[in-house]
UniProtKB/TrEMBL annotation:
GO terms for molecular function: citrate synthase activity. Pathway: Carbohydrate metabolism; tricarboxylic acid cycle; isocitrate from oxaloacetate: step 1/2. It holds the Pfam family Citrate_synt. Signal peptide: none annotated. This is Citrate synthase. PROSITE patterns: CITRATE_SYNTHASE. It comes from the Bacteria.
Amino acid sequence: MADTATLHLDDKDYSLPIIVGTEGEKAIDTRRLRASSGYVAYDQGYGNTGSCESEITYLDGEHGVLRHRGYPIEQLATHSDFVETAYLIIYGELPNVAKRKEFGLRLRKHAAIETQMQKILEGFPTSASPMAMLSAMVSALPAYYPDLATNDFEKDLKNFDRAAAVAISKVRSMVAMIYRYTHGLPYVFPKQDLPFCDNFLHMMFSEPYQEYERLPEVSKALNLLLLLHADHEQNCSTSTVRMVGSSAANLFASMSAGICALSGPLHGGANVAVMQMLQSIHDEGDDGTRFIAAAKSGNKSTRLMGFGHAVYRNFDPRAKIIGEACDTVLKRLGIDDPLLHIAKNLEQAALQDDYFISRKLYPNVDFYSGIIMRAIGIPMDMFTTMFAIGRSPGYIANWKEVASNPKGRIYRPRQVYVGATERNYVPIAERP
């Protein structure tokens, strides 16, 4: 294969290097195109633009493949847990026994939220968006940990292990605290002897005289939910983390920006839309049959949420895993959720009906994640904050790649200007 591509513009040829990834992905390097030709590559939304080289996650949307550091998501979901997968994503290798223990101890050490930060939370109205509160609290972390957030890559990388543990552990605790605050409940402090997910459930749902009853199936389902969201290549919020980090902004500031991007309904809020759709179908007394028929007829008011994906053109591998877990956790909790029955009917229709198969409208991870969270007791307005807990390792790993790259440059996309051409200023009295 040639190591360059030739672009013919204005009767002149330009030689552009070809980059080949370890999985055979090919890219044309256009970084010097504007300098040599005056042209920029136009790609609205960067849907066909490689913004970086990364060793973290490989995604093949055509074949439904997702791997973290080379490990298939199916294997991680079966054999690993969220904390171990987080370590893998951040540090590049699965930990041995000693490193796994050390990492877990760091997470436990940094679980508590400082009293002064509680006052920040209590400055918000209880009706405020949980994601707005979360992003604000994360953006405040540099004020409490200035030695971890100097905005100097060299200094911040020296303290990276502690900063990463603070970020993952405190985002988890902040979400629990936001839930308690918005529901008028007293805060519950973390316990040093509890694993990551059990500690979260304890902080969320324990009462002063009645601790949360630990159920292995629930903890396992939550572990799986977070693991499946741990990273997903260069999505909107992860790209935001990298862009902000490229300015040498610290880890916490970059993560706060990512959380803001995640708050959008087209990204982190997708599972909320799925639950609203399922509830609407149920309220209409439909088992999904009429809804499917309306969707196939082209009725624009009937939008099938949780199907299809911006990247996957095949079945989302995470959806297969989480769909099975959904059945297990609901049976263990003794929940007969009518929304799950509707979801199953919609899924079967999508997998068997030519209308959906031809359009590659397969269920994605958002389709079942909301049902699991609802079963655990997490309210719908907290769904996206749960996504933020899960995605924290991916944010951290991507920030680290940016910070560790000595040849990195600040992200600065170009544009194609389509506004007014040059014109002269007109005094206000002379304007029509």
